[in-house]
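Support reply, case 0932

Customer input (verbatim):
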Amino acid sequence: MFFATDLHGSDLCFKKFCAAPDFYGATHLVLGGDLTGKLLVPVVQNGRTATFHLGGVDEEVPLDDLDGQLKRLSNMGYYPVVGHADDVAELADGAIYEERLTQEALVRAERWVQYADEKLAGRVQILVAGGNDDDPAVDEVFRDRGVFVNGEGRVAEIGGLQVASCGWSNPTPWNTPRECSEEELRGRLEAVVSELDDPSSALFNFHVPPHETALDVCPELDDELRVVTVMGSPVLQHAGSTAVRALIEELQPRVSLHGHIHESRGVEELGRTTAVNAGSEYSEGVLLGAVIDLDGEGASVVLTAG
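Our regenerated output:
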């Protein structure tokens, strides 16, 4: 199977994901959480040019080049909103901004469903589950439509294997739609895995990685969301979930799939369980992933970058 996660709205990365059956010979696809993007980019039309603000820089482009710029923004995972100054001024209102962000995310998700059907119908299915950054409304777009099987919060089957999926995370600094206490997360995870016939032969698809592993290391942030440094070097911390780790160690599934912490791409053995964080470089248009071969009792993993 081919596993990728944290695409965060990148059109380019999603198209590469849909090419995995041909490129890697994958017979099954698993798309992890954080499907949606994080940012609207207002694009203001002024006569023969358009301007937008990105990465601390104001960019001005001729209208003839606008389509190319909109494609670039979409490939980076952003949602461009085009209009005259008065049209986009309302996005300064926080509530309107968040409503429009969800609307744009749903539109793009719908487009992904259509694209995947065109490329993969009758060949390969995609098991998909949300992540902590995804508004719950996105679940319905992927609710068992076309090639998609939505596994969020339940057990689904691919290739004769049961997969238990949960996109919720332990608390983050960003107050995302699907995060909760470790105690509540443990309850959510237990409710999902209770549906498994045999956890030891199953796969876990939990968005957040297990705590204190090579899969959950990230920079520590202060109260203003700035990276904490000592002598110019970032201070690192383990930000994964204790509930996820405890359940993996107790039930020992064959493979456990994770994302959430983009910079902690890797593979780690927890007892007999092979745990994988595929990582993410979505804003660069690079699709990070993992080709996973299940043979007999074990699993072999090759991390990929496309």
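We compared this against your earlier run and they match. Two observations from our side: The helical segments are 11-18, 20-24, 66-75, 85-89, 94-120, 137-141, 182-193, 242-251. The chain has a mean pLDDT of 96. Please reopen the case if you see a mismatch on your end.
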